[in-house]
Amino acid sequence: MAKESGIPSVIPNRSAAIIYGVTIILTGIYYFFYAKQIAPLLPKFFSRSVFIYAIGACFFLAGFCIVLDLLATKVAGYLLALLLFCLAVTIELRGFLNFQDEFKYIYAQGFIRDIGLSACAIMVANFKRDQVYERKHNRRRSSSSSSKPQA
Question: Which of 63, 100, 116, 131 would be 21's cystine partner, CB 3.0–4.6 Å?
Answer without folding.
Answer: 63
